[in-house]
Design goal:
The complex is a heterodimer of chains A (380) and B (315). Chain A is built from 15 helices and five strands. In chain A, 64% of the residues lie in helices and 8% in strands. Chain B folds into two domains: 223 residues, Rossmann fold; 62 residues, 2-Layer Sandwich (Alpha-Beta Plaits), CATH 3.30.70. Chain B has twelve helices and 14 strands. Chain B is elongated and about 75 Å long. The chains are: A alpha/beta (380), B alpha/beta (315). The interface between A and B is medium-sized, with 14 and 21 residues.
Chain lengths: 380, 315
């Protein structure tokens, strides 16, 4: 500013007005200004519950008595556990845990009640999927209280004498997959999906919008190159970038955070490829919708937010209300998190992985359809 | 159309129409460009020039109409047209973060040229770009950018060039050099359709077409277009022409007054009446009045204002 040039309210106001007019024109930006806080509030305010409750639990019960029934009831009443199914065998329990259908399997051995009465102090076994210790932690912490209340309620009258002395029965908790309950084991593989989501969606969104914004798209279309060639050709480098990112995170997980790899690393790469494909379709769709690079970035962020919050990366998936889980179930990151954690921490094979693979395939196919439909073939 | 004319014509389109939303951008445009001809396409901004060019090179599908580019059907053979036509976009549309050579290499690959290296080298030399081959396109001045764009259009040896305002924003000297290049190409038998706003460029074209509000108003050689409007023009020399212009505009026979520096051109279709009224109005002031040949510019200004007179402003 020149000396002697004083601040003019009128000129200042001219700039303010101009800015508002431009903002009003940019509908998408305007929608984002309103949309992002509303979405954030809804997600953080309603969806996130850091103390997950009603976690799916399976029961293998070879003993039916008042004591066992009360124990199961007390688990449900604690609100941490939700009895989802009765399982026929331990194998079925392990399978359900591996697939991630259940978080806990409660195993009540045959003759449990009789052993209690004989003061043989039997044990109930709770196997927990501890890949994400934050999810299971509070529920498992409640087990002692549940046990105590059952003892006080059931062992009365002639059985009251059992209450004194050592506990009449034990509950053994076996955290599976991540026995030391180290949070990094869960977070580091999850990070891969988050990083891939952000870079893939944003970079492809930008790459295509940039061509349009700079007018080079018209040139590409005027040349013999077909839209399919342009699109897929542009995407290839990003697949490479995605795989490099995945490798960096995997290397860091293995050698810096010492995450144990139980599964096949090749399977992780295959999963990453599928996940990259899913995100690229989102990126292409955004690049068709966005009119400029700024809008592409905004859309990428708009997509990114529910992904980190609702996919089970940051907050326990099972701790969210049903509607939030339903949204989470539409996002590929949810499945990718499960898939990669399953492969790395549980050593899951093809059969265990399939429930997470097909939703990503469906997502990719559907969004690809949307991308093709919205893609501007000519300049009309 | 007979087989012979089809062979002679680089562009032959009939009754092209295009709507964008509610806007009728191009209305029944028919154009014929002979092989080896430089065809100037004129008209105000937003008159439909770019849309017409895009329809001819297969980038846009016309809502109705038909025609051929280099004998290829514009509706069915747009892929072949793209391969055999060189289209230069109005806005510089190459990659500014690539060098000239890299841009040309890319174009050569897209056109699947057999001798890629040779073609790039030749084209660079033809257009005097060899020394700048490794400069980033984004660092070039307007004139050099256009030259590079022309080089990219020429790379695959097209028989027809569609140039959309190639010299907009380019300094006069670069403009002249660019046109020398175009005329050299035409001399080699390449047909050129070029849209422009500049009169000095229009007069260098063999044939011209004038489009306004999507309608083609005139087509032919410069002489044909001038004659077609039946305008007579008087030139009045002197100072304070503005007041005189006000005065003349009130006269019934005066359809157009344009000031070129210290000369006022007065045009109208009724020659006798115009002469009488011009003499009457201008004589007393002692200014020099002479009948001149109507210039192309007079005619274009006349054409430009015509739709407003006839069917009002309709964007």
């Amino acid at each position: 500013m020149k000396e002697g040039q004083r601040f003019s309210a009128a000129r200042w106001w001219a700039v303010v007005l101009k800015e508002f007019t431009q903002l009003k024109r940019d509908r998408l930006t305007f929608a984002m200004i309103v949309g992002i806080p509303i979405m954030q509030m809804a997600l953080f305010g309603f969806a996130i519950n850091t103390i997950p409750r009603h976690l799916d639990t399976g029961i293998i019960s070879a003993d039916q008595s008042d004591v066992t029934r009360d124990f199961i009831e007390a688990m449900e009443n604690s609100s941490y556990f939700k009895i989802a199914e009765r399982l026929p065998s331990e194998e079925a329990g392990r399978q359900a845990l591996a697939e991630g259908k259940l978080l806990f399997v409660v195993n009540i051995p045959a003759g449990f009640t009789r052993q209690v009465l004989r003061r043989e102090r039997p044990s109930i076994l709770i196997e927990a999927d501890a890949t994400d210790p934050t999810t299971t932690g509070s529920a498992l912490a409640a087990v002692d209280g549940i046990t105590q209340s059952v003892i006080e309620r059931e062992l009365t009258g002639p059985l009251a004498s059992l209450q004194g002395g050592p506990a009449p029965f034990n509950v053994d908790v076996h955290p599976l997959y991540n026995p030391d309950e180290i949070t990094q084991y869960n977070v580091v593989p999850g990070l891969m999906g988050m990083v891939l989501t952000l870079t893939m969606v944003m970079m492809t969104g930008l790459a295509v919008t940039r061509e349009r914004e700079r007018g080079t798209m018209e040139n590409l279309l005027a040349m013999p190159s077909t839209p399919l060639e342009v699109m897929t050709g542009k995407l290839i480098p990003y697949i490479g970038i995605g795989l490099i990112q995945a490798s960096i995170i995997l290397a860091a997980a293995r050698y810096v955070f010492l995450v144990p790899f139980f599964g096949n690393v090749f399977a992780v790469y295959l999963s990453a490829l599928l996940f990259i494909a899913a995100n690229l379709t989102v990126g292409i769709t955004f690049s068709s919708v966005a009119r400029n690079q700024l809008q592409a970035v905004q859309l990428a962020i708009f997509y990114f937010l529910p992904n980190i919050i609702l996919s089970g990366f940051m907050f326990p998936f099972k701790g969210m209300p049903g509607w939030a889980q339903a949204i989470g179930n539409l996002l590929p990151l949810t499945y990718f998190n499960r898939l990669v954690r399953g492969i790395l921490l549980k050593g899951n094979g093809w059969a265990d992985s399939w429930p997470s693979v097909w939703p990503m395939m469906v997502f990719t196919a559907v969004v690809m359809g949307v991308a093709v439909a919205t893609y501007r073939r000519t300049l009309d | 159309m007979s087989a012979a004319t089809q062979f002679d014509l680089a562009i032959d389109v009939e009754g092209l129409n295009k709507h964008f939303g509610g806007k009728h951008a191009v209305k029944d445009v028919s154009l014929r460009v002979r092989r080896g001809e430089i065809f100037g396409f004129l008209g105000p901004n937003g008159s439909g020039k770019t849309t017409t060019i895009r329809m001819m090179c297969g980038l846009l599908k016309p809502d109705s109409g038909s025609g051929a580019c280099l004998g290829l059907d514009i509706l069915k053979e747009s892929a072949e047209i793209k391969r055999s036509v060189g289209y230069m976009t109005q806005r510089f549309s190459f990659w500014e973060d690539l060098t000239i050579a890299e841009n040309l290499e890319f174009v050569a690959r897209v056109y699947q040229l057999a001798d890629r290296k040779g073609a790039v080298k030749r084209t660079l030399a033809d257009l005097g770009l060899t020394e700048r081959a490794n400069q980033l396109a984004g660092e070039l001045s307007g004139g050099w950018k256009q030259r590079m764009a022309l080089a990219a259009c020429m790379l695959h040896g097209p028989q027809l060039l569609l140039l959309d305002e190639p010299t907009a924003g380019v300094d006069p000297r670069a403009r002249r050099d660019f046109w020398d290049e175009i005329q050299a190409l035409a001399a080699r038998g390449i047909s050129v359709l070029v849209s422009t706003h500049y009169m000095d460029e229009a007069v260098r074209c063999h044939k011209l077409a004038y489009i306004s509000y999507g309608t083609l108003l005139a087509q032919g050689t410069a002489e044909e277009i001038i004659e077609g409007q039946h305008l007579s023009t008087w030139a009045i020399h002197g100072d304070h022409l503005a007041e005189l212009q006000e005065e003349l505009r009130k006269k019934a026979s005066v359809e157009q007054t344009v000031t070129f520096g210290d000369v006022l051109h007065v045009s109208g279709t009724n020659e006798a009446e115009l002469e009488r009224e011009v003499e009457e109005t201008a004589a007393w002031s002692g200014r020099r009045v002479e009948k001149i040949e109507t210039s192309l510019e007079d005619v274009f200004i006349y054409l430009m204002s015509r739709p407003e007179r006839n069917d009002g402003r309709n964007g």
